[in-house]
Design brief:
single chain; alpha+beta; Rossmann fold; Hect, E3 ligase catalytic domain fold; five-stranded mixed β-sheet; four-stranded mixed β-sheet; 17 helices; 20 strands; 43% helix
């Protein structure tokens, strides 16, 4: 007898609370109605009723592979087992539970026994209550071998369909819909095709991805995930939709827009096999466009070939790098104090072209989400160099002068650190209020049948987890603010290290990364009547966090004071 499979519950007449689990993957659909979700459910529910068992819930994953446990309703079932809501799990056969012999074996040998759960695979005559299941591990291995064989056949079929120019995806590209009369053929979607045409026209007019994203948001054109939900194709919500249920649907992802503009499907060509795939692991990265399988003129084009080619040339021409092909020396160090985004190096469009750093959130999303935080590259260079020299010279004095200067720096640092922490606390409180509103809306949507209970449970769990994480961090930050920390001048190691830079004349990337962990750029801002952010002064505050002393150094940068060298 193989005791590893036995349930902790040894009373056959116990009250069994059953979780019926059904699964069907795209591969399994080939086997017909006998394997369908409804067929599995009817068989198992009828069997439970004949045994007089209470069916707590039916858990079903339709369209999910059995090669991993990343399945929504399986995870919901396992949580029900952990909470003691279910003490018997039943499937039609072992392959419904999973086809990965390692993960399925773990569930049967460890997870179910640990939580006192009995498992039955009805058609395989497996019942962990009996314990006599020596053949079960071999069935798991055979199920995986079967899945590997099916995977090869399915992907060979996909490859063959790709060479014929057939669409093999689940969700058609924006602007198209599946042809109900010809499998693998695409038809133009009259409702969304004009959106695609707008996007390409903006690209033809020399507008970049960031402009297009902001313009789509300004015109309140919903993003693809909204269209998918409206048509019952997907239940996915973007991070912007989760953050702002009312207006988040108008925020488009830049990487999606770039992919859209590069997709030859819009000029009538079908491009497939774009990613590398490995059994049990899944997709492993993108292939280069020249490695795609592309078939010309397979369906009606939304964008003419010459326009598509022009957009590709313009996109290629917009890629920027320095003349030396190197990154900025401040790369990875500059952060926006308000949104936390990186500051990006750009060139101005004025006659005296020069380089400036600007908040990436402002660049990508516009003034509705942050302000420019623009800093002239030369001004920043001079300010940072001066600040390092000042700190280094401050510790080269002696006696009381040295001690007083270090104390003065520490007092400045502490206040700057406190200001940053207060801003963060304020943002965390605002986010908690937003999450409270999101939860209230979720309940409304559930009551009004706008979302299913399954979608509600998933989103509520994610939202509550984010709430818990923010509350924990908020409590820690408020504790720091409420504690009067006394700093002294006992940083002798910092004094010894920084003093060697008293006479530096120029900066480079190695030196900056040696001395500095991050530089935070902030500027006071206010919202106008249209809920847009607006910068108010002509100065920004620079807060340097040194690697050698984890306390910020403050300084103010006057805009336009640099030499643009």
């Amino acid at each position: 007898m193989n005791n590893r499979y036995m349930s902790n519950n040894t009373d056959r007449n116990a009250t069994w609370r059953v979780g019926v689990y059904c699964r069907l993957s795209k591969d399994d659909e080939l086997t017909g109605e006998s394997a369908s979700i409804s067929n599995q459910r009817d068989i198992l529910v009828n069997y439970c009723q004949s045994q007089g068992w209470q069916v707590v819930d039916v858990f079903q994953d339709d369209g999910y592979t059995g090669l991993n446990t990343d399945r929504p309703d399986l995870q919901r079932l396992l949580k029900a087992c952990e909470k003691g809501l279910v003490n018997l799990v039943i499937t039609k056969d072992q392959s419904r539970l999973g086809r990965n012999h390692v993960q399925t074996g773990f569930l049967m040998e460890e997870f179910f026994p640990k939580h006192g759960v009995r498992y039955i695979a009805l058609y395989d005559n497996v019942d962990t209550f009996d314990g006599d299941n020596e053949i079960a591990p071999f069935k798991n291995v055979l199920n995986e071998m079967y899945s590997r064989d099916i995977s090869k056949k399915v992907h060979a079929s996909y490859h063959l369909q790709a060479t014929k120019g057939k669409f093999t995806g689940v969700v058609p590209p924006l602007g198209y819909q599946k042809d109900p009369e010809e499998k693998g053929h695409l038809l133009i979607d009259d409702e969304t095709a004009p959106i695609v045409q707008k996007i390409f026209q903006w690209a033809v007019d020399d507008h970049g991805i960031n402009f297009i994203s902001r313009e789509l948001e300004r015109q309140q054109i919903p993003c693809p995930s909204w269209w998918h939900r409206e048509r019952g194709l997907r239940t996915y919500y973007t991070k912007w939709e989760k953050k702002d249920p009312e207006n988040g649907k108008y925020v488009w992802d830049e990487s999606y827009l770039k992919s859209l503009l590069m997709n030859p499907v819009y000029c009538g060509d079908m491009a497939s096999q774009k990613r590398y795939y490995r059994f049990k692991i899944g997709n492993q990265g993108d292939k280069a466009p020249e490695d795609w399988i592309t078939v010309r003129n397979t369906h009606e084009a939304i964008i003419p070939q010459d326009v598509f080619a022009l957009v590709q040339a313009k996109m290629k021409g917009r890629k920027r790098q320095t003349e030396q092909g190197e990154y900025s020396m401040f790369a990875g160090l500059l952060r926006c104090a308000e949104c936390g985004g990186a500051l990006t190096l750009k060139k101005t469009h004025t006659k005296d072209q020069h380089e400036v750093y600007t908040c990436s959130t402002y660049i990508h999303k516009g003034k509705a989400h942050c302000t420019q935080h623009r800093v002239d590259a030369d001004d920043l260079y001079d300010a940072v160099l001066t600040r390092i020299q000042e700190c280094a010279k401050a510790v080269t004095g002696d006696g009381t002068e040295l001690e007083d200067r270090v104390k003065e720096l520490c007092e400045e640092d502490t206040q700057g650190h406190r200001d940053s922490l207060e801003k963060l606390v304020s943002k965390q409180k605002d986010r908690l209020e937003t999450l409270d509103r999101l939860i209230a809306k979720l309940y409304d949507d559930l009551i009004n049948d706008k979302i299913t209970e399954s979608v509600f449970d998933k989103m509520l769990e994610k939202t509550q987890k984010e709430q818990a994480d923010i509350k924990k961090e908020l409590s820690q930050n408020e504790s720091v603010l409420n504690t009067e920390e006394k700093l002294d001048a006992q940083s002798q190691q910092w004094i010894d290290d920084i003093s060697e830079y008293a006479d530096i004349k120029e900066l480079d990337a190695n030196l900056l990364n040696r001395l500095i962990s991050k530089i935070i750029i902030s500027e006071p801002q206010e919202k106008d009547g249209k809920e847009n952010y607006r910068r108010t002064p002509e100065t920004v505050t620079m807060e340097i966090h040194f690697n050698l002393k984890p306390i910020p150094e403050l300084g103010t940068i006057e805009r336009g004071s640099g030499s643009h060298k």
